[in-house]
Amino acid sequence: MTESKADSKAGSKAGSKTGWPLYEVFVRPRRGLNHVHVGSLHAADDRMALLAARDLYTRRNEGVSLWVVRSDAITASTPDERDPFFEPSGDKVYRHPTFYDIPEDVPHI
Amino acid sequence: MVTAEVAEAVPDRTAEERFEAVVAAEQRIEPRDWMPDAYRATLIRQIAQHAHSEIIGMQPEGNWLTRAPSLRRKAILLAKAQDEAGHGLYLYAAAETLGVDRAELTEKLISGRQKYSSIFNYPTLTFADVGVIGWLVDGAAICNQVPLCRCSYGPYARAMVRICKEESFHQRQGYELLMTLMRGTEAQRRMVQDAVDRWWWPSLMMFGPSDAESPNTARSMAWRIKRHTNDELRQRFVDMTVPQAQHLGVTLPDPELRWNEERGGWDFGEPDWSELTRVIHGQGPCNTQRVERRRAAHEDGAWVREAAVAYAAKRAAEQPHTEEENGK
Amino acid sequence: MQHRTASTTEDDHVYLSLAESDSGPEGEGRWAYGTGFADPLLGVDTALPPGLDGDDLAAYCLMLGDDALVLAQRLIEWCTRAPELEEEVALANLGLDLLGQARLLLTRAGQADGTGRTEDDLAYWREDHEFRNVRLVETPNGDFAYSIARLLLFATARGALYEALAAHPDPVLAAVAARGVKELAYHREYATAWTLRLGDGTPYSAQRMQAGLDAVWPLLEELFTAHPVELRAGVDPARLREPVLRSLGAVLAEAGLTVPDVPPLAPVLGRAGRHGVHTEALGPLLAELQVVARAHPGATW
């Protein structure tokens, strides 16, 4: 739901002197699906983060598996890298199956 | 990172234009995007106030948890109070993506430097108040919050989607409780009417002062943080609530309430804005006790939180230095 | 007062727009909002099996149900007072689990003794001396350390008991116990984790944790002391003493805490909670729990 603090401009402040460090929570909603980022929480240690994630993010049967990771352990791309990172794949139309014309009467392809 | 900071330090025309374009296109601003300082500050203030409201809002209903008159109602109320803690957590996390720390925000709450919704500065005097809070207060909150699901700031919008879904259970359980009480004894029906009489006007004031008195509305609307004016939302709430009150069989305490055929909405009286001003300035019936309870919990818990940090540090010190091993 | 008519937008009907947000890339699937709420008694035959004494089964279910109800009430008192917001959510979950167990067990008691009393009849209309909970669950919360110590003792012992009761001849009690095993395992993990953090945290927290254990330990023995009903209708709690003490000892050792060397809290004329003889703390707890219900006899909530 919310982005990691590592994803904010003050990411370096994660785990301040006064509070517990921030963790990001990922839930696998059911078997066969990926873990999806659902939000964050504060915990003093990994196990506490896992238990708190269970209590906070799966109290309505939302999941079958949980990951938690310290927010400051996430390396994220920056908005300024958006163009060099993501533009180059925009013109590689030949990577998409619809690029190729196949006669309609050819089966199973 | 370096370029991002430069882009923020210098008023960068391109970055600002990009921000404006994203907002105008109904897309979302994400945490690492450039944003105007005032946009960031507005969001931090609004989200923090919203988070504080969820946490302080646990108190008036929590007041009846130990006395709930059936085990089913006790379980429902406990689940609801728990959701409110959860909503506070989602919102504090959204605020933290803007570069503030939850501990700072908590400090500001308990030192009175940040506000929460004034509605929670009223006392809950009977168990019917639990139902009326669900119906009116959560109903008003939903009117306010549903448009926020499309707020231009991504983390806030996503938090609101989750909160609104959960909150709809809150409003419905409140209304269902009131329906049960209205079908009950004469004393129960009197409790409901008394609670409606006490909570109606404060609920209307939850939408804030009228548009003419709300200087920040225009800017927040331009930024797509706010979608509708205070008066629009208040009108929507009244239009939604009046038929529900009729169905319930309670009277809303407003002699000016009447259907306006011409514009297809309910006309209603003017809330006592001087009362809202007094409550905002700390002179409501419960301001002191609400903040005091939150402060006491936070301060009494300090040794527990510190112990957890100390324990984690000891365990971390025991760990072999896996980074070095992995580096090989 | 003249108001503008609210503009027509997708926000006009709140539930409609909530439904709308379910579709699309940011919709329901994204939040994986669960739906499957299983009735723990789904498919369980509630008829009393032949050969079981209904009164004994009812009395036994009351004992276990009262334990769960009274401890839930104490956990609920933590609401808005927890040391951190994440713990608010956690403590409420524990309370909800216990409340759920209490409701099933009290309902079963009312079925088994043939009186047809409901969970609320039993929770709200019995007197102090009719409550059969152990005294461990009724003492005031104290500080976070005391509450954690109590929870550790209770969850360890009750988890072990439910494991044994999952094979009980009464299918309802067996189903409640089977579900309770999982819930109590989580409660125990939660209490264990906090016992370690407080016991091996700061010098101050270690002192508080030890004090909490010392204060609660005299109430432990009652969990292992059999009432005749327990021997006839359930599991002899004396069987739990050795495994529970071993498990607790391991946790305390890891936390650097000392197993308290204190005598058990004395009964009155040989009687304690299971006989309806309680501490002074139960009366006020029940007075608060029951006050609204009793002010409105015959009312429905």
Describe the structure.
The complex is a heterotrimer of chains A (109), B (328) and C (301). In chain A, strands 2-1-3 form a three-stranded antiparallel beta sheet, with helices on one face. Chain A has two helices and three strands. Chain A is of the alpha+beta class and 109 residues long. The radius of gyration of chain A is 20 Å and the shape is flat. Mean pLDDT of chain A is 79; it is low at 1-17. Chain A has helices at 46-57, 82-86; strands at 22-28, 36-42, 65-70. Chain B is an all-alpha fold. Chain B contains 15 helices and two strands. A two-stranded antiparallel ribbon of chain B has the order 1-2. The longest helix of chain B has 29 residues, at 154-182. The radius of gyration of chain B is 22 Å and the shape is globular. Chain B starts with a helix and ends with a helix. Mean pLDDT of chain B is 91; it is low at 1-10 and 324-328. Chain C has one domain (54-295): Ferritin, CATH 1.20.1260.10. Classes of the chains: A alpha+beta (109), B mainly alpha (328), C mainly alpha (301). Chains in contact: A-B, A-C, B-C. The A-C interface holds A 1, 20, 27, 29-30, 33, 36, 38, 41-44, 47-48, 51-52, 55-56, 58-63 and C 29-37, 84, 86, 89-90, 93, 189-190, 193, 197. Chain C: InterPro entries: Aromatic_CoA_ox/epox, Ferritin-like, Ferritin-like_SF, PaaA_PaaC, PaaC. Chain C: This is Phenylacetate-CoA oxygenase. Chain C: It comes from Streptomyces rubellomurinus (strain ATCC 31215).
| Fraction of helical residues of chain A | 10-25%
Q: Give the % helix of chain C.
A: 55-70%
The mean pLDDT of chain A is 79
Number of strands of chain C: 0
Name the average pLDDT of chain C: 90
Q: Any idea of the CATH topology of the domain at 22-95 in chain A?
A: Ubiquitin-like (UB roll)
Q: Which stretches of chain A are poorly predicted, pLDDT < 50 over at least 5 residues?
A: 1-17
**How does the helix and strand content of chain A classify structurally?**
alpha+beta
Overall SS class of chain C: mainly alpha
Second rung of CATH, namely the architecture of the domain at 22-95 in chain A:
Roll
Tell me the series of helices and strands of chain A, N- to C-terminal.
Answer: EEHEH
Count of discrete alpha- or pi-helical segments spanning 4 or more residues of chain A? 2
